[in-house]
């Protein structure tokens, strides 16, 4: 019984590692135009607050992670 539990945990860890590698590869394939994203963020900030703008940017551009979206919104606020 314990053997099956350990085996299942190992299989899940392997699957998780494969998925992380695949996500990283897919994100690298999608080009991100930062200037366009900054103009989009500036337009979004006129109608919504920063956290909602970050959410909207990430929904429109799935390749963005949270840190990148926050950095883009911060640059848009400064501009």
Automatic annotation (TrEMBL):
It comes from the Bacteria. This is Uncharacterized protein. The lineage of its organism: Bacteria, Bacillati, Bacillota, Bacilli, Lactobacillales.
């Amino acid at each position: 019984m314990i053997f099956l539990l350990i085996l299942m945990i190992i299989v899940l860890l392997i699957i998780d590692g494969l998925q992380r590698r695949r996500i990283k590869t897919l994100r690298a394939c999608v080009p991100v135009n930062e200037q366009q994203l900054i103009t989009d963020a500036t337009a979004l900030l006129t109608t919504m607050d920063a956290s909602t703008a970050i959410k909207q940017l990430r929904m429109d551009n799935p390749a963005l992670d949270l840190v990148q979206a926050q950095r883009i919104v911060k640059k848009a606020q400064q501009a």
